[in-house]
Please model this.
Amino acid sequence: MPEMTLIEAIRQGMDEELERDKDVFIIGEDVGKRGGVFRATMGLFEKYGPQRVIDSPLAELGIVGTGIGAALYGMRPICEIQFADFIYPAFNQIVNEAAKMCYRSNGDWTVPMTIRAPYGGGIGGGLYHSQSVEASFTHIPGLKVVVPSNPRDAKGLLKSAVRDPNPVLYFEPKKGYRLIKGEVPEGEYTVPIGPAQVSRPGKDLSVFAYGMMHYYTLQAAEKVAAEGIDAEVVDLRTLYPVDRETILASVRKTGKALIVHEDNLTGGYGAEVAATIAEWGFQDLDAPVRRLAAPDVPGVPFSHPMQDWFMPNPDKIAAAIRDLASF
Amino acid sequence: MPEMTLIEAIRQGMDEELERDKDVFIIGEDVGKRGGVFRATMGLFEKYGPQRVIDSPLAELGIVGTGIGAALYGMRPICEIQFADFIYPAFNQIVNEAAKMCYRSNGDWTVPMTIRAPYGGGIGGGLYHSQSVEASFTHIPGLKVVVPSNPRDAKGLLKSAVRDPNPVLYFEPKKGYRLIKGEVPEGEYTVPIGPAQVSRPGKDLSVFAYGMMHYYTLQAAEKVAAEGIDAEVVDLRTLYPVDRETILASVRKTGKALIVHEDNLTGGYGAEVAATIAEWGFQDLDAPVRRLAAPDVPGVPFSHPMQDWFMPNPDKIAAAIRDLASF
Amino acid sequence: MDLAQDVQLEMFRAMLLSRRLDERAWVLHRQGKIAFHISGIGHEAAQVGAVFAIRRGYDWVSPYYRDLAILLAVGMTPAEFVMGMMGKRGDPTSGGRQMPSHWSLKRANVISHSAPVATQSPHATGIGLAIKLRGDDRVVLTTVGEGATSQGEWYEAVNFAAVLQVPVVFVVQNNMYAISETPDMQMAIKSVAEKACGLGVPGISVDGTDVFAVYRACQEAVDRARQGGGPSLIEARTYRMTPHSSDDDDRTYRSREEVEEHKKSDPVLVAKRQLEERAILTEKAYAEMDAQIKAEVEEAVRQAEQAPYPEAEEALHPVYAEEIRLAEASHA
Amino acid sequence: MDLAQDVQLEMFRAMLLSRRLDERAWVLHRQGKIAFHISGIGHEAAQVGAVFAIRRGYDWVSPYYRDLAILLAVGMTPAEFVMGMMGKRGDPTSGGRQMPSHWSLKRANVISHSAPVATQSPHATGIGLAIKLRGDDRVVLTTVGEGATSQGEWYEAVNFAAVLQVPVVFVVQNNMYAISETPDMQMAIKSVAEKACGLGVPGISVDGTDVFAVYRACQEAVDRARQGGGPSLIEARTYRMTPHSSDDDDRTYRSREEVEEHKKSDPVLVAKRQLEERAILTEKAYAEMDAQIKAEVEEAVRQAEQAPYPEAEEALHPVYAEEIRLAEASHA
Ligand SMILES: Cc1ncc(C[n+]2csc(CCOP(=O)(O)OP(=O)(O)O)c2C)c(N)n1
Ligand SMILES: Cc1ncc(C[n+]2csc(CCOP(=O)(O)OP(=O)(O)O)c2C)c(N)n1
Ligand SMILES: [Mg+2]
Ligand SMILES: [Mg+2]
Model:
């Protein structure tokens, strides 16, 4: 199997879907000649032309709203939001329109649309090029929210997203674009939207994570393994709908749960995971449900000492694992 | 003490603040001659004139963005969003701007602004005149989010919101506008933003609620009291920042927790309350943390049988209380 | 007028049907049989003029809540409308999920819209883009009120359409009010059509109480769009003859004299006069038509009243497209 | 030119200081001493022309990221700028929280802005409203790029300002690119100034490489605003002479020839020629000024390099206004 980076896998996924289905097209800012500011769409404009890879005006609401309309007509738009931090102008279209279309029309109208957005911190982006925005969407019935943590899933989930008959938000951990490498199967495959995955079986405690934090969690698990702590790591992958079964099965096995994300603690996605466990896994628990997350400040500061303070990392995760394991 | 309705208390609060401080002004759609579509601002245009009660163009982003600018200059705007369902066009301004202003400028700039919006279902409003939107904001450091459940708090919290040096979202349970009546102290008083309140002390289990659901929860608690179940009811009132102390103190006392809201279950505000208890109240718990919330469908349906199915009510709450009490 | 006489009559009948049904809705509301009504009275010429300019059922429509006449003209039945008012299962817009007059009619290419104003405008642009990408020869008709043009959402929709040169006709029904607010509280220009020049699209303002004037303006825009000439903006100037909705009391913000004054240019009366002058309609033919329409409306109300409500559990689906079958099974 | 000679010289000096500092930033970036730079090279005339039209430090400014020359002209010191680039505690915009060039300068009435484009536009309108409500005689200057005018946010801001008739001057620095996209990908009109007619505000397009032309246009708009005449829209046409930012590679979307061609109308050269023609500046005086500025820039870099970084824990505050004291205490 060829090894590639996360962003290469995403690009290959888009390439194959554009090739496979002529209803698929990409729309976003600088996705054409520029190939996207992160180069996710590099080469696609040259290959598929300006009808399939469309540079849009600088307006996220317009990008998503136009995507919804095209999807209603039967197309399969991939909308690129340049940074997740800039998704909020489109919030009304995503939450009030795309998410509610199927239900409100009693199934007459559906919105088969993918919205891609790079998210996450630790890249010197300051408050507005570092945000984790998933929790704003993992509360909205009608949406699906996925976050890949490795190239294989990235490609497979992207292809599933494009083929999904519903609006799918596909958040890309941008710090891992070139940092995270891995094998990607040759030939056609998809990764289903829905199931989380136990990426490292273990018996002492369960650590739930996604995206870049999943990557770090695996590193932390190796660290503590050397100290005799056997952590199970679960890659949540699909954040919404919530895969409660996999979460609860893991807690049933280990009795302890730690949730890790780089979004703020309060009201972050970890709250729902914790609530799920506290409600339906209560009798399996032999320790408090812990969350390791960013502090409750409005964003990731630019200056390095403050950025480092903000971001979870393998050391902080390992410390939290040790702490919980010793409860 | 005079008795009044929830909406009268809100109006009186605004009236007194307009009177007290000439920097206070109201801006929104139809707030002038029309007095607001719910009549919350009735009479204020006539009393304070078009400079203090400003009918704006039909654009929520513009309302909030203009409010932020005025607040930066030192004014104290009260922005009215006609229905909470229409707050999303302003999401970017609230979340990326108002919330982050103080932090990002290292305290140089602050946004003393109140955003009022009627929220909640059960009024035949269908998907777009019934929404509970609080969970979209109780995750955003820099914001404060309050929801009054009775006239006394409504007036007192509104006055605190107007005087607060930060952006405060003030969500009004519109089904209770005229239904909820209560005594309001004469003369000047405020209710602090921050603390939740034990509105009915009890010993068997704790029920956490706010807004209309708090009103219903008190009714449910009376019902089950007749059956010998002594429920403690906590009115959360300030949803963000979270009053973890009051929540945990109640669970310490009762050992059982039920959270009630009319927003969707998954990712709703209840998730954070449950996570708080699962993390810091774990050793006090002798039952799973339960949530009673709306089902995970995209909105409140219009047609009555479906609306009734969607909405929590005193009977459903009483059933959930009985169920948890018997665990 | 180059329109065939039978088409002119058909247009008039569409206006009258909309009017009578709308009036009946107000009665149903007074009778306590429906909880809410938002009216198109005064808008019939704007709507019928616009919708007759497209190929109905073939072209696409992204409407707004006052568009009863448009929906009837593309084939929504009066009974379907009343079922929507009552939240009956047979409501074709949403199976009782949405409030009345939040349209959708899949079989006629009318997309579902919501309450937040102007949200349907970018959808029209997207449909236009899809039509262009597929190489189809359809056009999209989309409507809003003048108040909704204050939304950035509307601006971005028209701008995208202009830049992408897609076949969309943006019709603005300027009825002089957005609930209580007058146009000068929305914009610093005299006519919505002036917005066209800032967006680089052809713009025109027409008398929205004259169905044939609206028709001509829209026909030109539709033709241009279909031939690849891109989008247009059309303002149809009219007057909201009722309160904003059944929840509104318009006496707080406008005088009875003003409302009375505008009844003189009631679009149904204007059209009736035009057809009479053109000797296409006689008083007798009108009376017959009206009687027939009124009977049709009564029959619709009867049918709707007898129709079942949805079961509570139908509300569980379909949140996702995968559940559409489940939803269908549950109300089969 | 009715501007006093010393003011003209002062304007030129402001442009040159901005240019030299900006060039130095690129060098710092190549040296690996800073991680990011977004440049104002090519924008100096547009910015200096605009900011000299207001009462600096008295009027308010709601700027965007390229406005280095504006910030210097209202009193940000070069050292403060470099500290911002380096994320040093002394960064006056944010104490190292924001990325470089995300301005704020409280003491000069420059508000804090963020990265999402056009978000600062409605703030300008709100400040204008506050000025009007308080009866003050200030005006607000606010800027964006031409790409940002595609945002509904910008449209609503100008529309509110027009309807409320508040004293705001909206300046659009049209540099022919929004990252890789040209104006025809943003709008279906030939000039941003055409947007004015759809919004009911005076609009004008000026040569943004001519500082005095920009000054005259802005002065007129500022005077009108101060006298209660409401907002204006001014497009200053210029060219982005650098890649979008230090993260960009512009060779993928524009030719080297095109970039070279535009160097002929480099606004600093244009202004230098103008002052030479008016005999206000000699080659010798220029060389002296330049040397002095370069020394000033080096001194700024030296100071900034020696300045401390914030402590990690400073990041904890101030989330809320109540914590401002805590924040101040922690870095006292
Ligand atoms: C985003 C949003 N804000 C507020 C409302 C509440 N509202 C419903 S209709 C309306 C006025 C609309 O006026 P206009 O666009 O002129 O259409 P008209 O009703 O006059 O036909 C308002 C403010 C809404 N539906 N959506
Ligand atoms: C809402 C939003 N979307 C996308 C971006 C990413 N972005 C940063 S600058 C830029 C181009 C801006 O172009 P223009 O407004 O013309 O200003 P210029 O940079 O050319 O001065 C884009 C797309 C952003 N900052 N904000
Ligand atoms: Mg109107
Ligand atoms: Mg530009």
